[in-house]
Amino acid sequence: MLFKDGTQHIMKLALASRQDSPRLRFTSNGTFQISVFSDLHFAESATLDLKTQNVMSEVLTSESPQLVVLNGDLISGEAVNGSNPGQYLHEVVKPVVDKDLPWASTYGNHDSNVNLDPMLDIYNHEIKYRNSLTTSMLSSPNSGITNYYLPVYPHQGSDEAPALILWFFDSRGGHYATNRVRNDLSGARGDWVNTAVREWFTNQNANLTAKYGKVIPSLSFYHIPAHAMLRYQDDGVNRRTTPGINGEVVVSQGSGDTEYSGQDSQFMRALLDTPGLIATFSGHDHDNDWCFKWNGSIVDQNLTGNGLNMCYGRHTGYGGYGDALRGGRQILLNQEAMEKEIETWIRLEDNTTSAAVTLNATYGQDQYREVTVRSMRASNIASSHQGSVLLPFVVLWIFFQAFFHLKSL
């Protein structure tokens, strides 16, 4: 059976109380690292799921982060047809559980489909794990589920004030789970962070600032990119100042099943109006993995960037489209310097790195090496055919060895 052996062991760990969940802290050397896995797309086949788990395990072995973020499209809902769709979540988190690392999730458009309900089949299973920090501070059919924040505390000193806030937003999308739950909603879900979430975010951030008497640096995570990324791409992605893969047109919030009409405009404004917000991270577009600094204007929405960094992750799962090598984005923060700069790069499944940049005041002007797109398919072909390429030489060597041996008799 696909899930029988591994899942039974993992489920025993899931019985631990969430009250024992770890508190996030900077390390003793003042750093905090996050590994981001995007677009995992489990459930398309057992073979692909195993390959995805191997990617995650390789990346986590190489990087040893303090937190893992699963940034949407954990499961390909359209591939789920069985009577127990919740089983897939346990396969998704297995590599993270095996490393005993904490994680936090956002849900993506593929995490909701007619046979997959994100609350019943993902969230209700995920929160059983001791190391799962995923929660829901604002949840409704029209707001999604994964809207929450996590504090990260200094390594030493008082726990009264966090050093960093991590925001998570549900950009929704996909279709309502009409075969899983009974309600009046059917068809496509809006694929943007909605107004209620934006208001909650604004109010919560103001409350945190008032509570601690200062602005706390922050990052945010959501699956579907904001429209500002498309506007930047339209102006031309510079491969030297904005290194990374730029392999497809940005499909931003509000552009999936509807015509874009500014659905995420208020969310973008809220991001710009958040003091201390350093960078945002999204997935969704499998063939893009660049970062840009938003300084341009979206004239028709009266929005002007203020230097906010916006980044893609890296397509992690073997499910879903795309031929580029799989991997995950890494984010490294130094508690003393993070308000001025953070380091980020892509760790690939073959243990190499790509698109390493420093998000600082001059990002977007600094020159980097252009990224060469390395194909997963070509890599796999090279690996699988390496033996066949050498085979003729081996046969020839054996022939000559036999010939000279017979001649000497």
CATH superfamily: Metallo-dependent phosphatases
Low-confidence stretches: 1-15, 381-395
Main sheet: which strands, in order across?
3-2-1-12-13-14
Strand content: 15-25%
Please write the CATH class name.
Alpha Beta
The biggest beta sheet, please? 6 strands, mixed
Taken in chain order, the helices and strands follow as: HEHEHEHEEHEHHEEEEEEEEH
Inertia-based shape: globular
Helix content: 25-40%
CATH-defined fold name:
Purple Acid Phosphatase, chain A, domain 2
* DSSP summary: helix tally: 8
The radius of gyration is: 23 Å
Protein model, in words:
This is Calcineurin-like phosphoesterase domain-containing protein. It is a single chain. With 409 residues, the chain is an alpha/beta fold. It has one domain: 4-Layer Sandwich (Purple Acid Phosphatase, chain A, domain 2), CATH 3.60.21. The chain is built from 8 helices and 14 strands. It has helices spanning 4-14, 46-63, 87-98, 118-126, 195-212, 227-235, 265-272, 376-408; strands at 31-37, 67-71, 103-106, 148-152, 164-168, 218-221, 277-282, 291-294, 297-298, 303-304, 308-312, 327-334, 342-348, 353-359. The strands form 3 sheets. Strands 3-2-1-12-13-14 form a 6-stranded mixed beta sheet. Strands 4-5-6-7-11-8 form a 6-stranded mixed beta sheet, with helices on one face. Helix 2 (46-63) packs parallel to helix 3 (87-98) and helix 3 (87-98) packs parallel to helix 4. The termini are far apart.
